[in-house]
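User: Hi! I have a protein structure encoded as tokens and I'd like to know what sequence might fold into it. I'm fairly new to this, so please keep things simple.
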């Protein structure tokens, strides 16, 4: 696992956007096959998306040959609800880039047959060629996508019950009303994320410090599902000084030293 530490979220987001753009261009230079990316929601990726949008508008990057799959969606929330992840993704990314509508995939949280919906999603990912890169965030308790504590590290796309904590944290998007936050979600599994050839996780701010400490220095455990990244050959956490503040000084120094020695492609 690599840990890229930047001063603040603005710099970390810039790094992530440039990194994703570099990967998309790199594949486009080699092959006509589409770049398959996993995408996340939450407040964390918004600055990264803004920079990707800027690049597309400036003609520096194109999503014409990109296929995306989002990681999760609430169950039972209408797609048109402003806080559905469908609405979020269109608001903060899809409405402003040149990705083809047919290449955008988001789980249908209102599917009549949720099990079939989840199975079809896994199948579609495989048929697209598997993920080149999965971009994720992390919950305050270390959850990745909606894989709450005690989700198997081998889990795949399925319906899950959200923890009280997650619903309370997300109540800020629902007029501060916990009861308006759906109790269930559909989410890709930990193993779905880890099936990507590369995983990039964004985590900014002191609220994520405990999650990063557990994920980076703790054991690989279903209690902190981001810790599954420890078993991935190409996992990167992009963080800032606040979110990395709980790891040991020796770990912090090591991550800085690795980046200084190996450099970065952006
Ligand atoms: C939700 C999403 C996650 C996201 C997390 C953190 O639980 N399902 O994908 O990583 O929120 O959100 P934020 O970036 O707003 O802190």
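Assistant: Happy to help. Inverse folding works backwards from shape to sequence: for each of the 266 positions I chose a residue that suits the local structure. Here it is:
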């Amino acid at each position: 696992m690599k840990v890229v530490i930047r001063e603040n979220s603005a710099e970390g987001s810039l790094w992530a956007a440039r990194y994703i753009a570099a990967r998309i261009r790199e594949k486009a230079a080699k092959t006509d096959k589409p770049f398959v990316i996993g995408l996340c929601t939450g407040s964390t990726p918004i600055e990264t998306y803004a920079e990707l949008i800027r690049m597309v508008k400036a003609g520096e990057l194109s999503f014409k040959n990109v296929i995306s799959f989002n990681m999760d969606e609430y169950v039972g929330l209408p797609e048109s609800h402003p806080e559905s992840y469908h609405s979020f993704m269109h608001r903060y990314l899809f409405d402003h880039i040149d990705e083809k509508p047919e290449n955008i995939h988001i789980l249908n949280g209102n599917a009549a047959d949720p099990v079939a919906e989840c199975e079809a999603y896994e199948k579609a990912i495989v048929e697209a060629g598997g993920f080149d890169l999965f971009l994720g965030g992390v919950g305050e308790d270390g959850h990745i996508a909606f894989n709450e504590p005690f989700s198997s590290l081998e889990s795949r796309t399925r319906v899950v019950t959200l923890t009280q904590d997650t619903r309370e944290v997300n109540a800020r998007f629902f007029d501060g009303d916990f009861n308006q936050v759906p109790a269930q979600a559909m989410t890709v599994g930990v193993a779905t994320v880890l099936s990507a050839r590369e995983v990039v996780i964004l985590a900014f701010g002191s609220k994520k410090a405990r999650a990063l400490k557990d994920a980076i220095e703790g054991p690989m455990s279903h209690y902190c599902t981001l810790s599954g990244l420890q078993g991935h050959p190409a996992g990167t956490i992009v963080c800032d000084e606040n979110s990395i503040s709980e790891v040991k000084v020796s770990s912090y120094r090591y991550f800085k030293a690795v980046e200084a020695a190996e450099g970065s492609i952006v």
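A useful reference point when you look it over: The first strand starts at residue 2 and ends at 6. Feel free to ask if any position seems puzzling.
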